[in-house]
Amino acid sequence: MIKILLSLMLAANCHAAQAGKEKKNVQPKTRPATIEGVCDFDMPYSWTLEEKPYARQTGVVGLKLAAPDSSSENPAIIYADYYPADNKIGVSSATYMERLTAKGTLNPTGRKAGKPHAAALGALKASAVEIESVSLYPPEAMNPRKIVVKEKVVVAGTDGGFFVLSCYAAKARYRQVCASLDSALKTFRLLPTAQPKTR
Q1: Angstrom distance (rounded) from CA 64 to CA 41
Q2: How far apart are CA 54 and CA 60, in angstroms?
Q3: What's the CA gap between 153 and 131, in Å, rounded?
Q4: Domains of the chain by range and CATH?
Q5: Which residues sit opposite 66 in a β-bridge?
Q6: Confidence class for position 47, pLDDT limits 50, 70, 90
Q7: Is the pTM of this model over 0.90?
Q8: Phi/psi at 139 (5° precision)
Q9: CA atoms 55, 155, 71, 137: torsion sign
Q10: Count of alpha carbons within 13 Å of 74, Cβ hemisphere only?
Q11: What is the mean pLDDT of the chain?
């Protein structure tokens, strides 16, 4: 009888130890995304991350974050860009927002831009705007599908340039993707080597 009880206790302890190991191996919800030498913020752990091309040509450095199931037909993307004051595109934060909200520009088909409102990018003061538009897929088709997409764009200026963080998602999943963007906004921080004064 004593041997049976000892066996049961040993089995229970082994099960508890195994359960403890399983808890320790739980995948984290987020991981850091870093624009080298400039800033970092939290991104969903399972999302892919890649540096945006053409940094040398434009002077703009940035990241593209995509959900595992993101596609041209069902996009779920977050963009993060830093425009230094000497960027080769020649835009400021104010000019960027003006162009973004101007009527008749940037994909006018079914495009509706809201009014810019105050926001925050970490400790930086920012402006945000929501945009709804229609994307055609595949664009080269005779009768492409119309996909309604929504964007949230947040622009924050500094003496050293400005930041643009945005999300781009199919309307049906916009809230979910926007929540991931909001998390990035809250956890955004300038790296010690890039501490420009806020405007």
Answers
A1: 13
A2: 8
A3: 8
A4: 27-190 (3.40.1000.10)
A5: 48, 77
A6: very high
A7: no
A8: -65, -25
A9: negative
A10: 7
A11: 87
